[in-house]
C-alpha cells in the first residue's frame, strides 16, 4: 500500500499494539507451558500414523489414549510411544497392540531415552518434510499458473456433505469465477475429539474435514487451476477440539487457507479457553511452516453483538489475533484477519460506518490479506433487498481495498445456496469489481470527515478495552462476556480434561522443531509504552 | 370485499406472479420452451419468459412472468392464531412478580449438532431482535442460555438442576429433518426423566418449523419465523402464570 487511506493517530496505533502484546502474554505463557491430547495426536499424525479402527476411531486416538492412561500426557507421549516402538514393526501395529491392551508404556529416562528420541525425531521430520514439500509445490504452481488477476480474491463456500458432490460444485464455482473454495465442515465436527477418516459422503450442512477429503479436493482443484489459468486456493477449518491435528493434515495435503481464530471456539463452541489457546498456538506454528493463510473469525462477534456498538471488539480481537499469530511465527502476509458488513441497514449512515470500520482494519493491518465477510444478520429472507445489500457490501470491499471477499448470498438465512443463487451472487461481485476496480485510488476520506473521525473513535474504544483487558487478564475478560456477549470461564467448557500442564521433562519432537523455528523467525516485538 | 383473491401485479384480478428457477439443461430454444411448459403446468397463463441465462455448461436460469390461474378463498385458509394475550416486558415482569412470587426460570439451548445459536440468542440475549430486547432483559425471568450443540441428556439434567419452568430449544439446521428428529428426542427425554406435573414447558423454535406441529413433536409450543422475544415471554406467562391452575389440572 502506498499513501495511507485514512489518517490514524500513530501514537494510538502503537499503544493498541503494545497493549495487545501485554494482554496476550499471559495466555502465550499458558500455551507454552501446557499440552493437550490433540497436540500429542498431531505429533503422531506428523510421524505418519493414519487409519482408524473398525468403529472409525483413528489409531492416533487409540494410541494416544493408551499412553495417556499409563503415563499421562504431561511428559509428552512421544517418548513412551517411540520407546515402545522398539518392540513393534511400525506405529500402526503398535497402535493395534496398544488398543488391544497389550502394550506397557513407560517414560524412558537418561540414556534409555536417546534411541526413542532419535526415532521420534526421524519420524516427525518426515511429516514436516511433507509439509515443506507441499509448500514448495504451491509456490511452483502459483508461479506456473498464476494468482487471480484481481483483488479481492473471490471466496465461495461449498457444502453438500458429500465430498464427491462437493468436487464438481467446487470446480464449477472456480470456473464461474471463484478464486478460493471453502469446504464448510459438517455441523458438530468442531466438538468431535477425533478427526474422521477417509472420504466421507454424509455430513450435516457441511462435509467432514478428513485427510482424504483434503487430498481429493486439492487434486481436483489442481486440475481446475490449470484449466482456468489461476491457482484456486482451498480453505477448511482448523478449529474445534482437533485444531492441531487438522492443521497438520492441512499442511500435509496442501490446503491454502484455514479458518483459525484465537477465540472463536471458546465463544461460539464453548470449548475450554486453555484447551483452545494451547491447540491454537501449535496449529498456528504448523500453519506458519505450511505457508497457510489463516482466516480469523471476527465477523462472528457482530452476529451476536451490535455491529456499531461492538465495532471496537472486532479491532481488539484482530490485534490479539495478530499478536498470537506473530508469536507463533506467522508473518503478516499469512494473516487473513476477519471483519464483516453487519451493521443494521436501518441505521442512518450505515454504509459510511461500514466504510469507516473497513478502512480502519485496512489501515491498521496494511500487509495482511484481510478477509471481508458479507451481511448475514440482517438478511431477512427478502432476497431482493439482500441482493442490494450484498452489492453495497461488495462496493465497500472494493473501495477499502479488502483482500479476500467472501461472496454474500441473497438467500442467506433462507436455504443453503442454490446453483442460481451462487450465479447471481457472483454476477453481483463481478459487476462491482469491474465497475469500480480502481475506486480505492480515488477514495481518500478527509481527516475531519465522518469516516476518519469514526475510525479514530473506534480505535480509541479499542485501546480503552485493551487497557481493561490488560488489567483484568484476557481469560477474565472472556469469562465476563467481553467478546460476542458470550461468558466463558477458564475452568469451563469442553475439552478441559484433555489439557495438562507440561512436566519439567516434557518433550515433543514436533515442539522441538516448531519452537526452534520460533527462535530463528524474527517475531515482531512491539515496545511496551 | 371479496374473500376470493388472486395475485396482484398492477391491476386488480390480473393474477400476475413472477417466478425464477433453474433447469438442468443447456441454454437453447428447447430449454426456453421447457421453461414455458413448466410455467404452464404450474398454472401460469400466458407465461412470458423475460430472462434466460446459462449457468455453467449444463444449466439454465429462467425468470418467468405470468397470470396465475388459481384462486384463493381467504375463508378456507387455516393458520395458528395467537391464543394468548400479547404483553409488554413490564406486564410480563408484573405478572410474574405478583402471581408467581418468584423468578420464572427459562433454560435455552441449541440441541444436537446444531451450532447455529442465532435463533436462541435472538430470543434470549439481552440484545434481542427486531428492536425488542431478549428475555435476559426481563427482570423477573432467570435465563440460562446453554448455547450450541448441547446434548439432550445434558439439557435435561441442567433443566432439572435449575428448576426450569420452561425449556426453549432452537433448531436452525434442517438437513435430513434434523430439527424434527432432535425435537422428538428432546421431548421423549423430558417425558422419561420427569412426571407430567414436574415437566417444564417445552418450547421449540426455528425458521423451518410448522407452528401446528407441537402435538406431533411432543412439545407444548412451536414458534416459527418472525417470532420475537415478547411473543415467547407472553406465551410463557400465559401458560405458566396467568392460566396456571388450569394447566396443573390439565397435566396432573
UniProtKB/TrEMBL annotation, chain A:
It comes from the Bacteria. Residues 6-512 form the D-Lysine 5,6-aminomutase alpha subunit domain. Pfam families: Lys-AminoMut_A (PF09043). One of its GO terms (molecular function) is cobalamin binding. This is Beta-lysine 5,6-aminomutase alpha subunit. It comes from Glycomyces harbinensis.
Automatic annotation (TrEMBL), chain B:
Residues 103-247 form the B12-binding domain. The lineage of its organism: Bacteria, Bacillati, Actinomycetota, Actinomycetes, Glycomycetales. It comes from the Bacteria. It holds the Pfam family OAM_dimer. GO terms for molecular function: cobalamin binding; metal ion binding; protein dimerization activity. PROSITE patterns: B12_BINDING (PS51332). InterPro entries: Cobalamin-bd, Cobalamin-bd_sf, KamE_N, KamE_N_sf. This is Beta-lysine 5,6-aminomutase beta subunit.
